Amino acid sequence: MENFNFYSPTEFVFGKDTEMDCGKYVKKHGGSKVLIHYGSSSAVKSGLLDRVKKSLEESNIAYVCLGGVKPNPRDTLIYEGIELCRKENVDFILSVGGGSCIDSSKGIALGVPYDGDFWDFYGTGKVVEKALPIGTVLTIAAAGSEGSPGSVVTKEEGMLKRDVGSDLLRPKFSILNPALTQTLPAYQTACGATDIMAHVFERYFTNSTEVEITDRLCEAVLLTMIKETPRVIADPDNYQARANIMWAGTVAHNDIVGVGRSQDWNSHGIEHELSGLYDCAHGAGLAVIMPAWMEFVYKHNVMRFAQMAVRIWGCEMNFENPEDTALKGIRCFRTFLRNIGMPINFKELGAKEEDIPTLVEKFGLGDGKTGGFVSLSSDDVAEIYRIAAKASL
Q: What is the C-alpha separation between 114 and 128, in angstroms, rounded?
């Protein structure tokens, strides 16, 4: 196990009707004028937005609203949010929605006190020095942004999808009411589940040794997702299954399962170009890319993939041919994704094999390499896209 510094200061408020207390938590964490940032009309139609407003009013907290966040959140709305916050002297941002809404809120939060273009921070490594505080009312279990320091945003010019990370972007509090996810369509639920599992796998495939505790934590989250995802797809109103998934989504990405070990993240980077170019759901893109990445890299550490197959998918270990076990585990993962309604190749996703050179160019390696579990060149990334394009069960 490697040295680590674990920092996760977000206050999590979990359970039914907890959104009714959001005003109290905004006040607790210093907010006096709030931007309520939300996505589609579902927050309005469900009455959630009205409940949030009522809670703020009961705590004597003023607010302004900005809706319209789309999946793969756009820079254009963030610019609008920054301008609104400055005009209205907003000192706290409350995100009401899923990961896209939270990521958009984080972009606004770092942009308001910054003199330049907020996009300067995305994909550049530029250090965030100031940001408005953020709170969240989560409506989709997926991205883990409710407890993470990260934000992923799409720049409409060129459809570039890039990320930024800073502990200043960790929410001060996150309200997690699993009942708010019960109205999600099965496809969105499955996309979220795939994203959660991908967050764990990005940490599970590591070159660090002697990391049994986090291996077992990763496996526990993955086994939970394997059990609970089919249950909520069959019965969307299963609160207890929704609760397990919602907390799994948070644990998967606040890094408690990733400390003390190197991590990969190439599957996420490769997928970002898919959802940037085609505007597909991030989870759906990961369902196509991650098994393809596994097929490309598994020989780097056959026994780790065999461990995945045995511990997570229940495969029998073939001691004479561990590679056979490793490949069975990858097939089990892809089969699970198909069974919960996810695409497994380019055609099902709506992507085109002829666009692979464009995707590789947008990935931006040039003649360089990207590190991780296995260092990848542009040719390697192209091959992973080709595997993903033609994948089948």
A: 9
